[in-house]
Design a protein that fits this description.
CATH superfamily of the largest domain: wza like domain
Distance between the termini: 28 Å
Low-confidence stretches: 1-7
Shape: elongated
Number of domains: 2
Largest sheet: 5 strands, mixed
CATH topology of the largest domain: wza like fold
Strand order of the largest sheet: 7-6-10-8-9
Number of helices: 2
CATH class of the largest domain: Alpha Beta
Radius of gyration: 19 Å
Mean pLDDT: 91
């Protein structure tokens, strides 16, 4: 079971995340940006910066290095995730679909957001595919397992 990041600095950015970038002393370069479907963030002055599959800290360093390469002397850059990408839930829940991620979320929280289990749900057979898992392997998890942005939860049908 994947343990949730202990800080926002360890969070891995992905398509659909919204970030708040602050370049201290440079209000024109600071603002809210979204990680595009191609995994980049389009920034003023330096253009597209790759963000998908980078931690928040690595993305900060990348922006800092690009700004230091001919634009600013010793730039101070801060990045915060302002809106996480959604998680997905499918199978035997009342309203399958995508839902906004909330910090500290568990599988049971996700089921509750989706309207609860249907009468055919097998709550003991829940699986999850973590967005951060490059192999995209489905893992069987308990109801108190952590859910991260972009994860896919599947609630199977119970057979008698």
């Amino acid at each position: 079971m994947k343990i949730p990041p202990s800080s926002a600095q360890e969070y891995v950015l992905g398509t659909g995340d919204r970030i708040r970038l602050t370049v201290y002393g440079e209000d024109d370069l600071s603002g809210d940006y979204e990680v595009s479907s191609t995994g980049v963030v389009a920034l003023p002055l330096i253009g597209d910066v790759h963000a998908a599959k980078l931690t928040v800290r690595d993305f900060e360093e990348s922006v800092k290095n690009k700004l230091a390469a001919g634009y600013l002397r010793d730039p101070r850059v801060s990045v915060q995730v302002s809106n996480y990408r959604p998680f997905f839930i499918l199978g035997e829940v009342s309203k399958p679909g995508n839902y906004a991620y909330v910090n500290g979320m568990t599988v049971l929280n996700g089921v509750a957001m989706a309207g609860g289990y249907t009468y055919r749900a097998d709550s003991g057979g829940i699986t999850i595919v973590h967005a951060s898992d490059p192999s995209k392997t489905e893992q069987r998890v308990p109801e108190d397992a952590a859910v991260m942005p972009g994860d896919i939860i599947r609630v199977p049908e119970r057979f008698f």
